[in-house]
Amino acid sequence: MNPADLAAVAEQERQRQRQLLLRIFLCYSTPCLSAGAQQVRGALEELIRERDLAVRLEIVATGCMGPCSRGPLLRLRRADGDEQIFERVTPELARAILLQALELAPPQVAPLDPDLPFFTRQTRVVLANSGWIDPERLEDSIAHGAYAALAHALHEMTPEEVCAEIKQSGLRGRGGGGYPTGVKWNLVRKAPAERKFVVANGDEGDPGAYMDRTIMESDPHRVLEGMAIAGYAVGAEQGYIYVRGEYPLAASRLAAAIRQAERRGLLGSRILDSNFNFRIDLRIGAGAFVCGEETALMKSIMGRRGQPVPRPPYPAQKGLWGFPTLINNVETYANVGPIISRGAEWFAAMGTGKSRGTKVFALCGEVVNSGLIEVEMGIRLRDIVFEIGGGLPDGGRFKAAQTGGPSGGCIPAQHLDTPVDYESLKELGSIMGSGGLIVMGEGSCMPDVAKFFMDFCMDESCGKCVPCRVGTVEMRRLLGRITDGSATMEDFATLEQLCELVRETSLCGLGMTAPNPVLNTLRYFRDEYLAHIVDRQCPAGVCNLDRIPLLKLPEHAHVLTLFKERTDAGHHPDDQ
Amino acid sequence: MPVITLTINDELVSARSGQSLLEAIRDHGIDLPTLCHLDGLSARGGCRLCLVEVAGSPRLLPACTTEAVEGMVVTTHNERIDRYRRMILELTFAERNHTCAVCVSNGHCELQALAAELGMDRVRYDYLNPDLGLDTSHRLFGVDHNRCLLCLRCVRVCDEVEGAHTWDVAGRGIASRVITDLNRPWGQSESCTECGKCVEVCPTGALFDKGASVGEMEKESRFLRRILDGREKRQWRR
Ligand SMILES: Cc1cc2nc3c(=O)[nH]c(=O)nc-3n(C[C@H](O)[C@H](O)[C@H](O)COP(=O)(O)O)c2cc1C
Ligand code: SF4
Ligand code: SF4
Ligand code: SF4
Ligand code: SF4
Ligand code: FES
Ligand code: FES
């Protein structure tokens, strides 16, 4: 395939789509599938067969449309451009919706208000096609512009120019660290070596986060295209995409996408009639959070135990099998195509000073609309929670928003007007992270939240280095004591010292950031910790402290308890 | 071999390029505590005792895995680092069972010696005391997981020097433990050559000769360097 063929395929597919009377988009991403999208599809297909409608319409099983908590979602689009979107669609509702759309029955089901801030306040770049295309049909992606940026880069730009464009755009890594992507690409491009590699990090282990999964499930070609452009820019001919084992749908859609792209000459040898060869292989992780860390991920790709190794040397110097390796997050790659197509300036115009473009968040917790959103950087946290998210259910009061998962922290109500960008969040002691955003109401107990994240880090520690392997367990025990009411002020001091130690002396990012949820909740909610320790009270009413004795003694030690009671009552232990 | 210059504890010193920071520091006569490192095995960076401050790096860096480079300014000891080292040792003692008085390595143990040397006089953390058991199925040796500190010297010596790769690690985090073959008893191992290298390099009483009683398990720390020199420098050729 050459660039002209690509344009022809796009036009042909657009023609075909225009001729249909009605297109039914049904969200076929994991959350909607688990809410019953498959049954909805079954009902629709049955109706189509019954009434012999197939020639005039088609069902498009798409990726995520956004408001996942209202799934399954169904969108209708008529030839005249008229659109309606329906929520919580059951098989019965689906039949009614289709019949009313074809004017075979009177209108019964009301569509969702298209002016909901949930839709209007978003800026969809990475997710532009998500919910609009069938991720399993290459032509559909091509009709929406897939591989045009790659064709442009291969035929009109030098690798240097591609790196320069990415650098100029101000794109920063979406995997958590926020490292300038263009700078990283340039490092790999300039590294002298016979072979180089490109890796896409789709491990995404943060609890509650599913941004990368959605991107891979909904628009796999966008990720592959970004990787191919990166390969061209840095001089690599081999790429790996590392997907965690818990994402079978993402993996199978990627595998299918790779096959389709190879068959059409969009990946493989002499891509799009150029001299550039680029293969992509899929690697499936076995579910260890730490394998998202770049050095551990590379060990895992090479078939070794997925444990981090000290940096430097950085992957850009010495990565897979000792060769320079570019490793970026899936969402980072998903931004590449649009930047090359529309230019660095277009991209840089979105966002704030040092945080350009958009960010995808998985909005969850106590909000009316939870789901996947993409917003321009710099949007106020308040707007995310109260406009897009629709506020807290049942008039609940906002207490904090947790960002950045186990490496992050909580942003309290007094900072609701903070613009959401890398710098501002860092200043508040949290981080952008990969994009998990959990909204918490007054009923959340902060030491309990910290305990949850410490539990996670303790379970996910790889065990290589002592501060993380043992430190997280000891911290977890201390937090446990705080939340069950048996902690002393000395325990509290020990906890704070351990936070410092683990942060400063751990080998990789997991250990270094494991204390963050504790440190950050201490910063804003110290009183709550003290209430647990000094007053033995849980202000949020989560911990039930009053039921637990100061010392938890085993049964046989009741003698000691008696002894304690006597001394407490003012008796001297000796005066029997 | 090209020579580089760096500053260690305010003193200008020279080192060979390509040397690790640990080698450069030790060559200069400064004592840096280590547990997972062993001269002759690949560097691991796991015990975190050799952490040093390097000017320009916001993080502490492990000397064993950091290359010495021209112009580096390094601090090996100060109040903060020493405090961290003691805390890390405390964590190591809290992790498993270290009741020295009844240990085969009492008096000859690197962990015990380091604790004394660094002035670790108490453990502030909960003793976790997991019951990990003992494997004495091997004809000559035994492993007491309760004394293991997961330095993985045994894993590396068996893989890198003996070439048997009998040892490995199972589990992760606090549940990590060393295993033989595919987690079969050591005595049933088909790969173990019974060379004894792992026992000799183990810094604690975790690996021992069968029959050793309290305080009897002495290890010969120089033996690894000796056999490696013998191989590399061909000292044994007739
Ligand atoms: C414990 C740990 C887990 C991580 N998990 C992920 C992950 O799941 N996905 C990801 O993209 N990056 C993850 N990272 C960050 C990666 O190490 C790396 O910085 C990132 O993939 C680089 O891509 P970027 O520059 O595009 O952000 C993790 C880091 C740590 C320390
Ligand atoms: S910090 Fe934790 S996860 Fe990272 S290497 Fe050390 S033990 Fe493993
Ligand atoms: S291994 Fe060392 S520190 Fe542990 S009990 Fe034995 S002598 Fe003591
Ligand atoms: S005795 Fe030798 S071969 Fe056997 S486990 Fe130990 S080092 Fe490996
Ligand atoms: S058995 Fe000995 S050498 Fe092996 S990891 Fe444990 S302490 Fe280290
Ligand atoms: S999965 Fe259907 S809307 Fe997100
Ligand atoms: S000796 Fe360097 S970390 Fe163990």
UniProtKB/TrEMBL annotation, chain A:
Family the entry assigns: Belongs to the complex I 51 kDa subunit family.
Boundaries of every NADH-ubiquinone oxidoreductase 51kDa subunit iron-sulphur binding domain copy: 447-492
Natural source organism: Geothermobacter ehrlichii
Name of a matching Pfam family: Complex1_51K
Source superkingdom: Bacteria
GO molecular-function term, one example from the UniProt record: metal ion binding
Cross-referenced PANTHER family: NADH-QUINONE OXIDOREDUCTASE SUBUNIT F
Protein name: NAD(P)-dependent nickel-iron dehydrogenase flavin-containing subunit
InterPro entries, sorted: NADH-UbQ_OxRdtase_51kDa_CS, Nuo51_FMN-bd, Nuo51_FMN-bd_sf, Nuop51_4Fe4S-bd, Nuop51_4Fe4S-bd_sf, Thioredoxin-like_sf
CDD domains: TRX_Fd_family
Keyword line: 4Fe-4S, Iron, Iron-sulfur, Metal-binding
From TrEMBL, chain B:
One Gene Ontology cellular component annotation held by this UniProt entry: membrane
Keywords: 2Fe-2S, 4Fe-4S, Homeobox, Iron, Iron-sulfur, Membrane, Metal-binding, NAD, Translocase
Domain 2Fe-2S ferredoxin-type: 2-80
Domain spans labelled 4Fe-4S ferredoxin-type: 138-170, 183-212
Cofactor(s) demanded: [2Fe-2S] cluster; [4Fe-4S] cluster
Subcellular location as annotated: Membrane
Keyword 4Fe-4S among record annotations: yes
Example GO molecular function: 4 iron, 4 sulfur cluster binding
Annotated ranges, domain 4Fe-4S His(Cys)3-ligated-type: 80-119
Family assignment from sequence similarity: Belongs to the complex I 75 kDa subunit family.
Protein's UniProt name: NAD(P)-dependent nickel-iron dehydrogenase diaphorase component subunit HoxU
Lineage: Bacteria, Pseudomonadati, Thermodesulfobacteriota, Desulfuromonadia, Desulfuromonadales
